[in-house]
Structures are given as C-alpha cells and as structure tokens.
Amino acid sequence: MASVTRSIASSQQLEQLDTPVMPGNNKERKPRRRVVDYDEDDFFFAGDGRRRPAKYDVFINHRGLDTKRTVARLLYDRLDELSIRSFLDNQSMRPGDHLEHSIFGAVRDCSVAVAIFSKHYCDSDYCLRELAMLVDERKAIIPVFYDIEPADLVLPQELIDSKEYTPRDIERFRFALREARRTAGIGLTYDFTAGDMAELVSATANAVMERIQEMQQTAQQQQHMIISRL
C-alpha cells in the first residue's frame, strides 16, 4: 500500500477564494485589497508592520489552494509537536505583520525547507518566488510531490508570456524548478488514489528531523575542528 514513497532507503492570479481568518477570531471581516498574481490561500494577509524577529527551523513552501488545509497544516502541527519551529503563513503571522517581510524573512532564517509540489503549484507567482529565493539562499529543500510527478514542474505558458515578469524572473523560476526536479531522488511522493496522509506527514517530519540533525552534527564537527586548531 506504499502510497507515500521515498526513492532512497534513508531516510499563487487571484481566484474568488475565502479570505483567511486568524484562529480564534470569528468576527466578520471587511474584504481586503487583492494583489495581482497572489493567491489569498497562498499566504495570510496582514496589515503593514515590522517583521517578527523570529527564527524558524523550517519553511513550508506550498500552494494554499491545494494543500494549506491538508498536508501543509498537518505537517506544521506535527513539527510543532516535535518542538521544531516551522513557518506556515496563516499560523506564523500576526495582525500587523508585513506580508513580504515576514515570508521572505522566514525564508532567509530557516535551515530547512519543505516544498510541497501540487497540481496548481506552478500557477502561483508566490510559490515560485519563494522557491527561487530558497534556491538562491542555498537552503536544504525536502521535496514532496503531492499527487504530481517531477516532470509536471513546468512554467505555464501564460506566466511566460505575461508582461508582469522580466526575463530574469522567468529564468529564476525555471532554474528553481529544474533544481527541484533534480532532487526528486530524495523526495517523497503521495498518490491520491491510495494515499495515506498520516504516513506522508510522518515521513516528511522524519526527513526534516534527519536533515536538521545532520546539519547540527556538521556544525559541531566544524566547531571542534576550529577549537582543536587554537
């Protein structure tokens, strides 16, 4: 029944979507200003403000339309249980936080990223920008192919033809997707037809733990080497 598999033994234009609501706040909200090429489900809208001075271990890159209320949230909760500080926009941002400062600050701060690739992922400007920044920052990226194949990670022609993006933007997006496809061998896959969501979340959380532990061990070894030379 192996619906969640690993290839090695070790280890957002806007739609008419509901405006996200902060947990515990059931008051009716006024419609917020929409932003071109951003999907409301891909991030949590907040007013202008300074970025939270938080440090995150993990950044969860995902397409909200496909996964925010399923695997992305379940993974966030599981990592929280393991005392791993992860960034998921609608859970990690507060009213008053600046949208781009918060998200891109978390990208810069994280040690590891989980990129959840799904059916509508490449339609999202914001997903692609986050992924490109993660690649630029040389972050360790754990890919999850959520009912898609690595070969499906291609830019839509509408985005390529759009005047919203410069040639450099397009090349950065393409390069980031190529890098994601190259990591398919160490990724996780999930099939809707026979999928086990709990298994997917558990396997992804374990992969995150392993990567963080490896990075900590490497840092300790480097520190010991420096001390031994003093």
Q: Can you describe this structure?
A:
Residues 54-181 form the TIR domain. Keywords: NAD. Pfam families: TIR. The chain is α/β, with parallel strands linked by helices and 230 residues long. The protein has one domain (4-15, 31-228): Toll/interleukin-1 receptor homology (TIR) domain (Rossmann fold). It contains seven helices and six strands. It has a six-stranded mixed β-sheet, with helices on both faces. Helix 4 links the parallel strand 4 (112-117) and strand 5. Helix 4 (125-136) packs across helix 6.
Helix content: 40-55%
Number of strands: 6
From the 3D structure, determine the CATH topology: Rossmann fold
Strand order of the largest sheet: 1-6-5-4-2-3
CATH architecture: 3-Layer(aba) Sandwich
State the distance separating the first and last CA atoms: 55 Å
The overall pLDDT average reads 80
Tally of helical segments: 7
Domain count: 1
Write a concise synopsis of the structure shown:
Residues 54-181 form the TIR domain. The protein has 230 residues and is α/β, with parallel strands linked by helices. 43% of the residues lie in helices and 11% in strands.
List the helices and strands and how they pair.
Layout: E1 4-6, E2 58-61, H1 64-81, E3 86-87, H2 89-92, H3 99-109, E4 112-117, H4 125-136, E5 140-146, H5 157-161, H6 167-182, E6 188-190, H7 197-228
Parallel strand pairs: 2-3, 2-4, 4-5, 5-6
Antiparallel strand pairs: 1-6
